[in-house]
Design goal:
It is built from 20 helices and 16 strands. It is α/β, with parallel strands linked by helices. Among the domains are: 176 residues, no CATH class; 174 residues, 3-Layer(aba) Sandwich (Rossmann fold). Strands 13-12-11-14-15-16 form a 6-stranded parallel β-sheet. The protein starts with a strand and ends with a helix.
Length: 578
């Protein structure tokens, strides 16, 4: 039987049954497009939630093992003597995805071996050096989602650990397609910051805090944060042709472990390790000195920039090594709510304090507020509004990171789409005409939008990167347990959530809150339930939303997961003291 490991047409065999390593190998433009070729699909190993929980514990151990190994390797290579925490701040986002994505695919192939099927597999002989990412941003947002990278990783695992016969499609090495973005030099910001640094705080440095406009202005004035911030991919030195393959193999390929998976990771490391931490490291460390950051601040704060902003993380790691405190603020997501929420684990791990939107489950966590809407009043609930908005998000079809509340591979993504399509189908005709689909355009996919459009081409679709609750709609129907739902609750805008239990497990501490939300019809566990509720209540939705019972539960929930500040000025002044 022919094994297919990506969605490239050349991998299929005509007039023969093909065995797909996963549903993402189908090259559908939308959920409802049928593939007439003969195929069978392997069951996905993490459909088993018990296995997922067990594997996560193991992967956290592998992560901490690699942090310490890379500390030794990089201190040796760069002739430095930095701590484990230094390298965890630098590498955590990249390293976790490197380990997780490889393990996920390792286990998929492991299940192939258990099936004992006789399989042949066509593969592309890629030139490996072209997979080497420039930085964390390229790797974590582009490379590991590309068809070519996924094809290559599967082919490497199959070649190293199975008896499956591999057949190269071409004799010469192929250059893979992985989108890498050039770093931009912000000369104006760099020059301006030389002057602004004289009037800016030397003791505190805060960047990308996620504040509303007025709160940002007040915070920056109070704490003297006048420098321009450097966004992701800016002011990095990333030379394109300075890859030292020989050094990478010598220093990074430490494959002498008894564990086969860890050995495999070491063989992959030279071709997955970002240049920013290897060939371009010293140049970027020297470049930091020219960018007018505070020399040795007591405190560094952010809500976003520890995610893939390597320039910022190089600065943080250096100063934490010199005893600066590092504070991270919740930016959204389902922190404190979702079970197995890995971004929360790493944010708490690398910070000295983590400021949540109200919850606490760790001595490092400080219950704070939803700072995105400081000084923003509750949304006006105009009776004349007469539309239903459904915000949508694009997700990748290949298996991605573990962050429950959203779909993480094609089968779950199809369920996400089905939830929306079925909800619309079950609406009365008069309500169906009132639906608007809000979407964002993504670089790599428009699978969700195309699927909904295929089912309902006459709906209103509008592209917007603005906050949903700034648009004029009577009620919002959220379909992911994430930032949008929390903001709707916080801003007191009529909102319901269709929560799919398949990919949205709620942690034990949050279940009592969701039980109350379900009872009040704010949370629905099926599209049928949500549509029936809208059909019965749409005309008087404000009466339901503003009832004392609904408002009591809303405030109870928000006080824990989307807390509102009663004295914003005072709470902003307390941030540094906390």
């Amino acid at each position: 039987m022919n094994l297919v490991i990506s969605d490239h047409k050349a991998l299929w065999k005509k007039n023969e049954k093909n065995f797909l390593i996963g549903a993402w190998c189908l090259s559908q433009k939308n959920r409802f497009e049928k593939d007439k070729r003969k195929y069978q699909i392997q069951k996905y190993h993490w459909d088993n939630q018990t296995k997922l929980k067990k594997d996560l514990k193991y992967l956290y151990k592998v992560y901490h093992f690699f942090v310490k190994k890379l500390q030794l390797i990089l201190n040796n290579y760069h002739q430095t003597n930095f701590s484990t925490r230094y390298y965890e701040i630098l590498l955590s986002k990249w390293l976790w995805k490197f380990i997780l994505f490889h393990f996920d695919r390792w286990e998929i192939v492991k299940d192939l071996k258990k099936s004992k099927k006789k399989l042949n597999c066509k593969i592309f002989p890629f030139d490996k050096k072209y997979f080497i990412p420039a930085d964390s941003y390229d790797y974590c947002t582009s490379t590991i989602f590309s068809n070519d990278w996924n094809h290559w990783v599967f082919s490497e695992i199959i070649s190293s650990s199975t008896n499956i016969k591999t057949i190269e499609i071409k004799n010469k090495n192929i250059i893979p397609v992985v989108n890498q973005i050039d770093s931009k030099k912000t000369i104006f910001k760099s020059l301006s910051n030389k002057f602004l640094s004289f009037i800016s705080s030397k003791e505190l440095f805060a960047q990308s805090m996620g504040f509303s406009g007025k709160a940002k202005l007040f915070f920056n004035s109070h704490y003297k944060q006048f420098r321009f911030f450097y966004p992701k991919k800016s002011n990095l030195i990333l030379n394109s042709f300075d890859i030292n393959i020989q050094d990478r193999i010598i220093f990074l390929s430490k494959s002498n472990n008894k564990n086969k998976f860890i050995n495999f990771l070491f063989t992959q490391l030279p071709y997955n390790f970002p240049k920013i931490f290897f060939e371009n490291y010293k140049d970027n460390i020297d470049n930091l000195k020219k960018l007018s950051f505070p020399k040795n601040p007591k405190k560094i704060m952010t809500a976003y920039d520890h995610h893939f902003n390597d320039l910022f993380n190089l600065y943080v790691a250096k100063n934490v090594e010199n005893q600066s405190k590092f504070y991270i603020f919740q930016h959204g997501g389902s922190y404190g709510i979702s079970d197995n929420y890995t971004p929360e684990y790493f944010d708490i791990s690398i910070s000295d304090k983590f400021f949540s939107w109200g919850w606490k489950n760790n001595k490092k966590v400080v219950p704070f507020y939803l700072q995105k809407h400081f000084f923003v009043s509750e949304i006006n609930q105009y009776k004349k509004r007469d539309r239903i908005v459904i915000p949508t998000t694009e997700f990748h079809k290949c298996p991605v990171d573990i962050a429950p509340g959203r779909p993480r591979y094609k089968n779950e993504l199809d369920s996400y789409i089905d939830n929306i399509v079925l909800f619309i189908k079950k609406l009365d005709n008069k309500n169906k005409k009132k639906v608007s689909i809000k979407y964002l355009e993504e670089r790599n996919t428009d699978y969700v939008r195309e699927s909904i459009y295929y089912a309902y081409p006459n709906l209103e679709f509008f592209k917007s990167d603005k906050n949903t609750y700034k648009t004029n709609f009577k009620i919002c129907v959220e379909t992911a347990n994430s930032t949008g739902f929390l903001e709707g609750m916080h801003l007191n805008h009529p909102v319901i959530l269709i929560l799919d239990k398949k990919y949205s497990p709620i942690r034990k501490e949050a279940k009592k809150y969701f039980k109350l939300l379900h009872k009040l019809k704010i949370v629905h566990y099926s599209s049928d339930s949500a549509a029936n509720f809208i059909n019965k209540n749409f005309e008087d939705i404000l009466k339901w939303w503003n009832s004392s019972e609904t408002q009591k539960v809303r405030k109870f929930f928000c006080n824990k997961f989307a807390k509102k500040s009663n004295n914003t000025f005072l709470d902003i002044k307390k941030i540094a003291k906390k």
